[in-house]
Design a protein that fits this description.
Blueprint: E1 18-21, H1 29-33, E2 40-43, H2 53-58, E3 62-65, H3 71-86, H4 89-97, E4 115-119, H5 124-131, E5 138-142, H6 155-161, E6 164-167, H7 181-185, E7 192-195, H8 204-212, E8 218-221, H9 241-245, E9 250-252, H10 261-280
Parallel strand pairs: 1-2, 2-3, 4-5, 4-6, 6-7, 7-8, 8-9
Helix pairs in contact: 3-5
Length: 281
């Protein structure tokens, strides 16, 4: 077996029988036409939105991923962001660095007794629920395609009863723009909001408007809808950007929720086994 590291999808693929994707290279019909011997595509991660899986499958090409490999990393990151936001850890640390020592102004908000709504219950959703055990929270969870799990609730119930809402959705046509301004208007308890899934499910301008109008209490975002397609930076910033990132109830990290040493090792092991199963068939 010969392995090559390709910096882009523009290089010759005629001899390739497998393709491992680490970044956001788009695999469409044109690319597949240039790889007639391709038998499998392995996505080192979870999101498959950049791969035309329908066309690949029709050509007998297996599309593989390892969404469970970094679920724990995402869950721990979501919990860390939630605690940092509700206990004002990052903001208070920023003030101390600037020489300010404010105590009353940084009074926190406890999780005990809160209702948390998890939207999307595939891999990272249940992992987040697991790390929340022992926090004394009430779990509400919703998934359009799964049933029979603990805390199963309707989306309407989550919007009505949740003090915290955490999104764990894949990006698809039906989830793009999912958490828009109308979504926030239906939330009755001014929730804290976490998004560690995909930026495009939550229009940033709508989220900022909801924050400004008091429809939500705060935002902890690891993903943004203004990320570049390769995720290595941001595209044009909105006019409200400076006000947004300097809001005391906004916390942003650069799409790193799934990045941990253990997650990388687990995803690699999972993919190796799945590729081996395809090759041996």
């Amino acid at each position: 077996m010969r392995c090559y590291a390709l910096p882009s999808a523009d290089l010759p693929l005629a001899e390739a029988t497998g393709l491992v994707l680490r970044g956001r290279i788009r695999v469409d019909a044109d690319l597949l036409d240039r790889a007639p011997r391709l038998r499998w595509i392995a996505r080192f991660g979870s999101g498959m939105e950049h791969i035309d899986c329908a066309t690949a499958s029709a050509r007998g090409i297996a599309c593989l991923s390892a969404p469970e490999g970094n679920a724990r990393a995402v869950a721990e990151h979501a919990l860390g962001m939630l605690l940092s936001l509700t206990r004002r850890l990052a903001w208070a640390n920023r003030e101390v660095i600037e020489g300010q020592w404010k105590r009353a102004e940084n009074t926190g908000w406890e999780l005990r007794g809160a209702s948390i709504g998890i939207v999307g219950y595939g891999n990272t959703g249940p992992a987040f629920a697991e790390v929340l055990q022992g926090m004394g929270i009430r779990l509400l969870a919703h998934d359009k395609y799964r049933t029979g799990f603990e805390g199963e609730s309707s989306l309407e119930q989550i919007q009505a009863e949740s003090d915290i809402i955490s999104f764990h959705l894949p990006l698809a046509a039906e989830t793009k723009g999912y958490a828009d301004y109308n979504f926030w208007k239906r939330c009755q308890r001014k929730p804290w909001v976490i998004n560690t899934s995909r930026g495009s499910i939550m229009p940033l301008d709508d989220a900022y408007r909801a924050l400004q109008e008091g429809l939500i209490r705060g935002l902890a975002l690891d993903v943004l809808d203004i990320e570049r397609s390769n995720l290595e930076g941001l595209s044009a910033l909105p006019e409200f950007w400076n006000d947004f990132v300097n809001h005391p109830n906004v916390l942003i990290t650069p799409h790193i929720a799934g990045w941990s040493s253990q997650a990388f090792a687990q995803m690699a092991e999972i993919l190796v086994n799945r590729v081996a199963n395809v090759v041996q068939c």
